[in-house]
Amino acid sequence: MSRLVVSSIGPVSSVQDGGRHGAQRYGLTPSGAMDRLALATANTLVDNPPFAAAVEIGPFGAAFTARHGAVRVALSGGLRAADIAGRAVAMDTSMTIADGETLTLGFTRGGTFSYLAIEGGIPGEPMFGSLSVNARAGLGSPYPRPLQAGDEFQTSPASGAQERRIELPARAGGPIRVVLGPQDDEFGDDAKALFFESDWKISPTSDRMGYRLDGPVIKHLHGHNIVSDGTADGSIQVPGNGVPIVLMPDRGTTGGYPKIATVITVDLGRLAQTSAGTALRFKAVSMAEAQEETRKFARLLRALPDRLRAIDRIELNMEALGDANVAGSAVSAIDVGTWHAEADILTPD
Amino acid sequence: MATKLSPPRLLPSGDTAVTVEFSRNIDDAANERVLALDRALSETPIEGVTETVPTYRSLLVHYDPVRIGFDAIGGRLLALAQQPSPPREKARHWRVPVAYGGENGSDLEDVAKTLHTTPEDIVARHVAGSYRVAMIGFTPGWSYLSGLEKFLHMPRRQDPRLLTPAGTISIGGVQTGIQCLAGPSGWHLLGRTAVRTFQLHRDPIFLLEPGDRVTFFAVDAKTFAEQDRAAEAGEIVAELMAA
Q1: Closest Cα in chain B to A26
Q2: How far, in Å, CA of A21 to CA of A297, rounded?
Q3: Which residues, other chains included, contact A104 with Cβ-Cβ below 8 Å and sequence gap of 6+?
Q4: Chain B residue closest to A286 (CA)?
Q5: How far is CA B96 from CA B99, B121, B126, B129, B233, in A?
Q6: Nearest CA to B190 among B116, B117, B104?
Q7: Residue B229 exposed, middle or buried by CB count within 10 Å (0-12, 13-18, 19+)
Q8: Nearest to A267 by CA among A34, A14, A31
Q9: B198 to A26: CB separation less than 8 angstroms, yes or no
C-alpha cells in the first residue's frame, strides 16, 4: 500500500464527500463538500465516483508527500499555485506523486476551497453513508476532525494511467440566484428591495456553517423570532441584528430566524468560493428556472467523464504557469481567528 | 381533531426542499398533523423524497428535483396532508432520570425565585409532566418536548450561554428539552441526565423519535455520576416503559 501523508496543512481542511443524508430528523447536519462541482471534477479525473470523499483544502497552503510508493491524485476548485518537487502542476488535472516526492499547494488565489481527490478513494468507515467530517458530532473518517500535519491516507499504488485534464464549461457569472421563501412574507417590500438591490460582501467571520453577508441591515416586519423550522443548504436566514447568513453544509438542521430566500443548488458552490470582500448580488428566479438549472447541473455531473482529455507534460506546464499568475491575491472568505464565532448561526432557541 | 382540517401552506425552501407548514405557532394539534404527515410519507413514499425533518409546526421535505418537480411534489403532499392520518402505533414512553439543581442545574434556584416558589416545587412540577418529543433539531439529539405546564412557561434568557453541559435538561418559553451535546443555549438549566439521546457506536445511535412520550424522574447527584459512567459505556439508562 502507498500512503499519502499530510506534511503541512492549514485550518479549515477536512475530508468531505457528497454529505450525510437521512438523519437531519435527529438533528444531524448533512455536512459534505462546500463546492460539489469541484469535488466531482477532482474525483472524475482519477476515475472515482463523483461524490467520493476527497480532501477539502481551506484557503491556506498545504503539502502532501507520497510514501511507500507513488500516489495518483487530482486537484480542482479554488485556484492555487501547485508543484510536485518543484515542477509546476495545473488545477483540474490528474498528477502522480512519486514515492518520496511532495505536492506543495499555495494559498488560494481565487476561490476558497480546493479538492484533492486520491485515486482509489479515501479509505474510511462511513457513518450514515458518509466519511464527511462533522467535528461537533465526532463524525468523519479516517479522522473525525479537521486534518493535521502527520495524518495519512492508505491508498492503492498509482495506476500509472496517462494523466488527464478536464474541460469544464465556464461557471455562470452574475448575481447569485435564489428562490424566495420560506419566510419571505416576514419581510416588507422595502426590505426585499434592499436585499436584492444592494451589494453584499462575505464577512471574514464566515465558516462551513454559514456565510455572513456584510451590507445593509435587513429589517423584519414582525420581529426576528419564529418558531423553529427546518433549514436547507443555501437558506438565507436573517437574525435579530439584520445581518443575513447563508446556511452552508454544516448548518443546524433547524433554526428560529426567518429565512428570506434560498440560494439555488447550482449557485451554492460559486457562493462558497466567493472570497471575502468581493461584492456580490442576489437575484430571485422562479422555482421552474431553479429546478431546470438543477437538472442541467445533474446532467453536467453525469457527463464529466466525457470532458476528460489526455495531456502531455508540456501542455500541463503551460497551464500551470498560466494559473499561477492569475487572479492576484484575493482575500480568503474565511478568517481562522473567528472560525468558531457561531452564536448567530447555531441559534440557541 | 374532529374539526375540518385546513390545508397546510407549501413554502419553497430552495429547489430541493419544501416546507409543509401547518401553523406559525407552537401548537400541539399542528404538531400532531406534522407527525401524521411524516408517518404517511414513510408508509406511502413519494418517489424523489430524500428525507424529512418534522418540527413543531411544519414538515420539511427534502427531495431531488431531478426526480420530481415542485408542483408535482406539492400536490402529492397536500393530498396526503388532507387524508385521514394512518393509525398511530402506540407511542413509546421513556422515563428519563434527571439530577436536578446544584451544579447539574444551575438555574433551578433562580427559576424558583422568578416564579415565587421553591426549587422542590419546580422539580415536582417538572417530573409530574408528560411530554411529547415534538421535534429533534439544532444539534444532534437535541429533543424539543411539548406539554410543559403553564406555570413553568418562562421567557428565554436575555444572554444565551455559549456553552452548556451535555445532557442538560432545561426549560425555555413553552417548552422543555433534552440537550445531548454541550453547546450554546438560551434556556434555563434545571438539571442533567446521563441519557445520551445521540451516541455513536451504540445501537440505536439516536434514542428518541419525534412523537415519543417522555417523563422525567429525579435522581441524586451520586446516581447521576454512576449512570453517566454506565451511559458512557453504551448503556441506554433511560427506562422504556411497557406499552
Answers
A1: B136
A2: 20
A3: A61, A62, A63, A82, A83, A84
A4: B15
A5: 10, 19, 12, 12, 17
A6: B104
A7: exposed
A8: A34
A9: yes
Please give the grid coordinates belonging to residue A312.
502531455
User: How many CB atoms within 10 Å of residue A171?
Assistant: 12
User: According to DSSP H, which parts of B5-69 are helical?
Assistant: 28-43
Which residues in chain B are contacts of A181 at CB distance < 8 A? 11-13, 19
Q: In 3D, which of B187, B31, B136, B167 has the Cα closest to residue A28?
A: B136
Partner-chain contact A287 B186, CB within 8 Å: no
Q: Is residue B1 within 8 Å of A250, Cβ to Cβ?
A: no
| Residue numbers in B near A263 (CB within 8 A) | 14
CB–CB of B15 and A25 under 8 A? no
Residues A27, B156: C-beta atoms closer than 8 Å: no
Contact A28 B181 (CB under 8 A): no
Query: What residue has cell string 471534477?
Result: A41
Picking from A95, A79, A88, A107, the residue whose alpha carbon sits closest to that of residue A9 is A107
**Which of chain A's residues have a Cβ under 8 Å away from the Cβ of B161?**
348
At B128 the three-state DSSP class reads: helix
Comparing CB atoms, the residue among A22, A24, A348 nearest residue B160 is A348
- Are A233 and A239 within 8 A, CB to CB? no
Size of interface A-B (CB pairs under 8 A): 170
Q: A24 and B51: CB-CB below 8 Å?
A: yes
Q: Beta strand B213-218 with B93-100: parallel, antiparallel or unpaired?
A: parallel
- Cα distance between residue A243 and residue A202, in whole Å: 11
The verdict on a CB contact (< 8 Å) between A136 and B139 is yes
Distances in whole angstroms, Cα of residue B44 to Cα of each of B30, B76, B85, B215: 21, 11, 12, 31
Phi, psi of B131 (to 5 degrees): -120, 160
Minimum-distance CB partner of B53 among A178, A253, A259? A253
pLDDT digits (tens, 9 = 90+) for B44-71: 999 999 999 999 999 999 999 999 999 9
Prediction ipTM score = 0.92
Top residue of B9, B10, B15 to mutate, by most chain A CBs within 10 Å, is B15
Instruction: Name the minimum distance, in Å, from the CA of A127 to any CA of chain B.
Output: 9
Q: Is the pLDDT of residue A326 over 90?
A: no
Q: Which pLDDT band, with edges at 50, 70 and 90, does A346 fall under? A: very low
pLDDT of residue A230 exceeding 80: yes
Q: Do A26 and B58 touch (CB under 8 A)?
A: no
Beta-carbon separation of B69 and A291 below 8 A: yes
| Residue of chain B whose alpha carbon sits nearest to that of A298 | B66
B190's enclosing H/E stretch is strand B188-192
**Measured distance CA(A241)–CA(A218) in Å, rounded:** 8
> What residue in B sits closest to A227 (Cα-Cα)?
B25
Q: Is the CB of B138 less than 8 angstroms away from the CB of A343?
A: no
What is the C-alpha separation between A91 and A166, in angstroms, rounded?
9
Q: List, for residues A73-110, the tens digit of each pLDDT value.
A: 999 999 999 999 999 999 999 999 999 999 999 999 98
Q: Judge contact between B162 and A279, C-beta under 8 A.
A: no
Closest C-alpha to A269, from A197, A172, A201 = A172
